Amino acid sequence: MTRKYHEAFVFFVLICSLGVTAQKNVLTKETAVKLMLENNFGVRIAQNNIEIADNNQSILNSGFLPSLTGSAGASYQRDDSTFEFPGQFLRDEDGNPVIDGETGNPVPRPDADLYKAEAQRYNARLTADYVLFDGLGRFYDYKRLKEEYDLSELQARETIETTMLQLFSVYYEVARILENINVFEETYESTADRLKRAEYSFEFGQSNKLDVLNAEVDLVNDSINLMNERQLLKNTIRDLNIVLNQELENAYAVDTTVSFTKTMLVEDFLKEAEKNNVRMLQAEKNTMINDYSLKASKSVFLPTVGLTGFYGWNLNQNAPGPFFPGVNVNNTRNFGLGASLTWNLFDGGSGVTQIKNARILLESQEILNEQIAQEIRRDIANAKGNYFNLLQVYELQEQNVKTATNNYLRSTERYKLGQISSVELRQAQINLLNAKTSKNQAKYAAKLAELQLLQLTGQLLNVEL
């Protein structure tokens, strides 16, 4: 590799680095959480479920309010009729038959025609029904709906906690890759500097061509590592955009600062972990829901008392007839109250079966609670052990970086003095590279372990991240 080619290669890598950095905005942890809460699909669905549960627990869905029904009707009728009177005769004022002067016979009664006889009818009615007592069924159903609303909030909280863990697993992966890129860039620059020195030394006859070739090979490997890491960064940022529901090609630089929760505070969280764990709280809510369902099912043994009332109006306007000349109008208003008592003395046994099944479901939920509590204790113990173990690993990796840095600096000085070969220097460089990337891995692994522990103790949403 000639010096001209080497300089062009370095310029290309730097330009790519600047191009990637320039298009990134700094995404803080607070902003990431805000975007997740506003845009994440799972969180939005969980919030909709809360709204549904809120609607269900409303007094409008409780059965405690009366029902009010209104009805109205109207009809119109028109008739054209002819009325015949066979065998009937006209009579005078004294009731005697009228005699035809020509024939001497009584005069028959003529037919009567009724043309365009109109009749109209109107009615309206307002009925109110109210269940005064239903055996306490709706009372316990209303309490159950309140508990189901609280359960939906806990389910939404679990969704948010799970999504937040997913968010930070990707967020910290981006941070780790960014720090690794910095390490790879430092390694690349060191190798490039070594290549320059090897070329100068070779030109002045102070070293052989082997040092130049070794440096060229190492520089290519470092550039490949850097390119792969940058591609990995782009892929991981796309994963982050999925969690945040953002455009896939949005690029970010994230906050690589990590602070750990104080050990004493973590210990305090662990003391109240079972009480605050979201799974345990959900199990308790499910127990209460099943308990209210059992109590509501017992309402089958008690009577139902209801009240009803109505107010009605009717208007009938009849057409005139042959026997009732003139329009006949009937205007009626009515009002009524009533009460009813219904007692299902025997329903074939379905009510008793329902109560038995509800009692069994309650017992099963209590058994499930014991299982969940045992699993939570196990998960907390495992998470606690993992967290403190990874903290110690991180501390050791920090010390290892210091040792590897010191070793690389000493090796660099000895290489300049010709006391070690380029191969030995490269090994020291690789050791430093591995130490730094391992430290980055340990740092974010420890932080994620802390977040998992905080979730299990029910404190993930109550601490600064």
Side-by-side strand order of the widest sheet: 2-3-5-6
Using DSSP, what is the number of strands? Answer: 6
Overall pLDDT level: 89
Distance between the termini: 48 Å
Large-scale geometry: elongated
CATH topology of the domain at 3-39 and 140-302 and 348-462: Outer membrane efflux proteins (OEP)
Q: Spans of 5+ residues with little confidence (pLDDT < 50)? A: 4-23
Please give the count of helices: 10
> How large, in whole angstroms, is the Cα Rg?
45 Å
Sheet with the most strands, sense and barrel status? 4 strands, antiparallel
CATH homology-level superfamily of the domain at 3-39 and 140-302 and 348-462: Outer membrane efflux proteins (OEP)
- Structural class estimated from helices and strands: alpha+beta
Order of helices and strands: HEHHEEHHEHHHEEHH
* Beta-strand content: 15-25%
Please describe what this structure looks like.
22% of the residues are buried. The model is unreliable at 4-23 (pLDDT under 50). By secondary structure, this protein is α+β, with helices and mostly antiparallel strands. The strands form two sheets. A four-stranded antiparallel sheet has the order 2-3-5-6, with no helix packed on it. The protein is built from ten helices and six strands, in the order αβααββααβαααββαα. The protein has helices at 3-22, 29-39, 41-56, 137-203, 209-244, 263-271, 273-276, 278-297, 350-416, 422-456, and strands at 25-27, 67-83, 112-133, 252-254, 304-318, 328-342. It has a domain at 3-39 and 140-302 and 348-462: Outer membrane efflux proteins (OEP), CATH 1.20.1600. Helix 4 (137-203) packs antiparallel against helix 5 (209-244) and helix 4 runs antiparallel to helix 8. Helices cover 61% and strands 16% of the residues.
